[in-house]
Amino acid sequence: MSELSTLARPYAEAVFRMAQDENNLAGWSSRIATLAVIVSDAQVARLIGDPSVSDERVVDLVIDVAGADLGERGGNFVKVLAENGRLALLPEISVQFEALKAKAEGTLEATITSAQELTQMQIDGLAASLKAKFNRAVNVQVAIDPGLIGGAVIAIGDQVIDGSVKGRLQRMTFALQG
Question: Is 151 left (phi over 0), alpha (psi -120 to 50) or beta?
Answer without folding.
Answer: left
